[in-house]
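Collaborator request, handled under Task 6.
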Amino acid sequence: MGSTGVDPFAPFTDRVPRDPSDLEAFVDDLVAQLTDAELCRVMSGDGPLIRGTREMSQRYNGEPIVAGRLDRLGIPGIRFTDGPRGVVVGHSTAFPSSTARAATFDTSLEERIGDAIGVEGRIQGANLFAGVCINLLRHPAWGRAQETYGEDPFLLGEFGAALVRGTTRHLIACVKHFALNSIENSRFWVDVRATPEDLRDLYLPHFRRCLDAGADSVMSAYNQLNGEPCGHNASLLEGTLRREWGSDAFVMSDFTWGIRNGRRAVLGGMDLEMPFRWRFRSLPRLLRRRAVSRERLRASARRLLLAQARGALRGEPERYRPEVVAGPEHRALAREAATRSLVLLRNEPVADDPVLPLDPTRVRRLGVIGELATTENLGDHGSSQVHPTEVVTLLQGLTAAAARHGVELAYLDGTDRPRARALAAGCDAVVVAAGSTWRDEGEWILNAGGDRSTLRLTTDTEELICTVADANPATVVVLNGGSAFDVDPWLDCVAAVIMAWYPGMEGGHAVADVLFGDAPPGGRVTCTWPAADTTLPTFRRFTRRIDYGPLFGYRMMEATGQRARFPFGFGLGYATFEWSAPRVVSTVEATGDDAWNTSRVVTLSVDVTNTSSVDGVEVVQAYVPLTLGSHRRPLLTLRGFTSAEVPPGATVAIEVVVHLSDGVGRIHLGRSADPEDHVVVRLEE
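Structure tokens returned to the collaborator:
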């Protein structure tokens, strides 16, 4: 029983049999009892179209969105909550954005976050979480980059699977947006073209990985794929999802505009129109005219009811207490995730020592400059917006940390440039808060959000950074944002840069912890940060058609001989490490019938010694040469990673599980995707 007073799976909870064969018979019996009108009814959202749309524009998903509830047969229906930063319903824990969480390279942490999200959703009356967003970040200007895990399919799949494992302890999990949704401003009409080889190897396998991990549902995308809207796309939904992958997950539409034609959607493989009945109002008429078959509708109803029945078997009732929502335990988890996600991009010496961590014996007065220091900057204000009861800003976090360390703190918003220069000159170190907000990127809503027109900061912000740094060489820039920035215009002016992403409700404390050295920076960038002259894939915010090829991100850097400003997987720390020679621990043969076409699973071990006097986090990454998609030359590709904390002076054996395909005879271990950083392990045939 949740805080809503309603078990979101009732009345299935006490009726669903636990034996799998009996479970399917139970669902089949229910489907057989559905009248034609009820068959059509369970395939749509329950609320009124016009009034419901108006209410959602005022507060989206404040309560679970119900679809397909049928009291006559005791069917609970889908009770939807969005994500992925947390539960959108109510006032829930705002975790860091997905890009931030992926920067930890720690899937066990992501699974714990998924568990917390599942608990909070269930307490607040939801039974489905639609926040497993794994669209591939093909270009860093994509406005909703913050909602996904980065540019690499393997990373997307492993993190998405971890979130699925956590949430499905309590809820139905929905993975989205299927597929190739990574242009925001043109999402309703753009036709994305991709070859079957590129789809198979690069743009779809992470979806299969999440389904194999237990996802019960897939949300289709707004865009077209090879000339057909994804919500109607029989090749994608019936061909790939159901026949090739053998999935019985149900497909729901993206909201309102995800279906353009009821008949084409049903025949294409769509099961549920969300959030209200609009195009599917035609289903009774189509059924009477035999334009769609009763068997087809029954297949959809069966998938929908099977997911609800499976979900009713899940849960830990003793944990579903209202005070858990955004309570101390989950806030501590949000702070841990934010701290682990922070990426130290630059840390140059000032007066012979790196500027970070801030040393209270040298930094007696700290300046903080920038409007974002006082902004509750959680990210996008679209469908992923979480509404916590409290947000710790950067200034609040630094104020608390400065008081603990006996440091005086002074703040200016930076709009008055001469005053900012004077403050900087009168401090021992300065933190400049910069980057993006929901107004600059995110879901495109009226005049806010959308795709970025440039990867640079605003001219005013760049000038402020250089002004402050000119007055004080010990200048640290803390960036907020969903993906990479072009930092070349000001990078050499400053001593240190931290990428803080959108760090969630405890983000201010997390950034302060890392700046003062109370916690080590352990994050790594999950997309390629380009230099000013780097060539990236074609990206147009407003376009009718675009070709998605096989080259993007770090694989494109290798294929074209370019060097990124910060390569995928890059991140500095306060600690220093030495690695032993890697060794093979085990090799297990595999069938190749998985998302990564795995023929062998090789476990490597490397002894990592922390040679410094401070705590550190090391991320060991495994890359293997693979020919993927329509590009015919092997390129180094991520196929394993492990993040581990290493105490000062300690040696930790870090094991990395590597997924290999046929013909791969070597593994590259390194701290990033840059081949110059790699140690090569050659395998015996």
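The cover message to the collaborator said: "The two ends are 56 Å apart (CA to CA). The chain has three domains: 20-323, 337-560, 577-682. Please let us know whether this matches your experimental observations."
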